[in-house]
Amino acid sequence: MKPFLTGISCFFLGLKALNQQGLRRFVVLPLLFNFLLYGSIAYLSYHYLFAFTDYYIKQLPHWLSFLSSVFTLLFFLLFVLLFLSTFSVVANVFAAPFNGLLSERAQNLLYGIAVPERPFGTMVVQSIKRQGQFIYYYLPRFIGLCLLFLIPPLHPFLPFLWFVFNAWMLSMQYQDFAMDNNLVDFNTMRKEIKRSKRFSMGFGFIISLLSFIPFLNILIMPAAVIGGTLMWYKRQQNK
């Protein structure tokens, strides 16, 4: 349980560091990307989410109609998590160079450790390439989970599966910025994260949970980038 709670605390330490002098200007662009992310989710939710939920509720057998309120909540959560998972990955792909800069600055300012020097152009290309590797890893799993929609008896369990999936993927993506900065290759990054599953899941759990809280969720991207940098630092200390 302790590694799980430590993962949660890393996010809140990242949140606390947002206002630290020397980091503020690096936080602006990730904040903007997150604002666009949640603005898009709000727009889609307003225009499509309730229609999707209503459609699925109407497919329920008559004898389950007394559970319509429960299923409405479950389907609502399911589609929010589906939108959140998709848009978070896309937003992080576009924000990757700026998140990499924020992670680099946080590492230098908070822990006094400089990252290996690379020209900005090289770093941007590497960030895009790295996100391509992540998408290649992410897509088959995302599609596999989407296929579970074809199995109606599993529908009540899908919100929980999507929550766990979303937590794990976001944890991996936010931890990767510091690892990429420090020249840890993608496969090694995956192995390191798998070796500390509870630590990583605690971090992803709180990110996914707070994503549902309006206004606070705007701060998630920069806070998670700094939190992921702290997780990298803790791993280095334990080696």
UniProtKB/TrEMBL annotation:
It is a multi-pass membrane protein. It is found in: Membrane. InterPro entries: CysZ-like, CysZ/EI24. The chain crosses the membrane at residues 35-57, 69-95, 142-165, 199-232. Keywords: Amino-acid biosynthesis, Cell inner membrane, Cell membrane, Cysteine biosynthesis, Membrane, Sulfate transport, Transmembrane, Transmembrane helix, Transport. GO terms for cellular component: plasma membrane. One of its GO terms (molecular function) is high-affinity sulfate:proton symporter activity. One of its GO terms (biological process) is sulfate assimilation. PANTHER family: SULFATE TRANSPORTER CYSZ. This is Putative sulfate transport protein CysZ. It comes from Legionella feeleii. The gene is cysZ.
